[in-house]
Design a protein that fits this description.
RDD, 7 strands, 3-stranded antiparallel sheet, Dna Ligase, domain 1
């Protein structure tokens, strides 16, 4: 199916349904733009044919009808025309500044703080006092370079944490991972990125990417690497972001960039 779009007396197309949905997802096409394809008797707004949704799945046309003559646009260009297709005010996406990306990351990290608060929220006053005492001893031992003894006390602290606390922490962490995964899949934005108005897109096409690239490769993969290798790996990852395309190492792996939507 060939789909034609129009805005401000300028016509663009033809596009496929897949291309239209990609442009709707990235907001290059608005619900107020006009749309026409074979099977429609007149130009309509995109929002009218999609029923207000940001995706379009047209039914198979029963008859091939031309757009009405009164329309100011020609739905099917002349075969001999040499005029190039008109883009719908497609402006090049600006790369998000590193300051915004860093602040978005800070917001996302702050959302994990409540998970740590569970460790004391479900404890009795006596348990809290024991934990505070052991933590003080741990810091003292670390200052004396008695790392092995400090590690042993750390296990004692963990043993004081009730099972209900571990379950609450696991539930919160799982809920946050699912929420972030859903947001990244639907919008290409984590909570922090949504607040700052920045978005993860394909490095070439500048359209949102699938969950494998936006969540598994960019986030989960590097969380695992940081845990098993060293936290310094996170700094190495971000050093790459100072390049021309502002792609951190996780961006390069997922073939993505972060753009500024505001």
């Amino acid at each position: 199916m060939q789909i034609y779009l129009a805005r401000n007396n300028q016509q663009a197309g033809p596009y496929t349904v897949e291309q239209l949905n990609q442009m709707l997802a990235s907001q290059q096409v608005l619900l107020t733009d006009l749309i026409w394809h074979i099977g429609m008797t007149e130009w309509k707004t995109v929002g009218e044919v999609t029923q207000g949704q940001s995706y379009y799945y047209p039914e198979a046309p029963q008859t091939a009808e031309a757009a009405p003559a009164s329309t100011p646009f020609n739905p099917v260009p002349e075969q001999n025309t040499t005029t190039a297709k008109i883009a719908i005010e497609k402006k090049p996406a600006a790369l998000a500044p590193l300051s915004k990306r860093a602040f978005a990351k800070f917001i996302d990290l702050c959302l994990w703080i409540p998970a740590g608060l569970f460790s004391t929220a479900f404890m009795s006053a006596e348990q809290k006092a024991q934990v505070a005492k052991l933590q003080g001893e741990i810091f003292t031992l670390i200052g004396q370079d008695k790392v092995d003894q400090a590690n042993q006390l750390s296990y004692e602290v963990l043993a004081l944490v009730p099972q209900s606390v571990w379950l609450a922490m696991a539930g919160y962490i799982l809920a946050m991972l699912v929420l972030q995964a859903i947001l990244l899949h639907k919008t290409g934005q984590s909570i922090g990125k949504k607040v700052l108005g920045i978005q993860i897109v394909d490095a070439t096409t500048k359209v949102p990417v699938n969950i494998t690239r936006s969540f598994l490769l960019r986030s989960i993969c590097f969380i695992i690497l940081n845990y098993f290798i060293t936290p310094i790996f996170s700094l190495i990852d971000w050093v790459f972001a100072f390049g021309k395309k502002r792609q951190a190492l996780h961006d390069r792996l997922a073939r993505t960039v972060v753009i500024d939507k505001k």
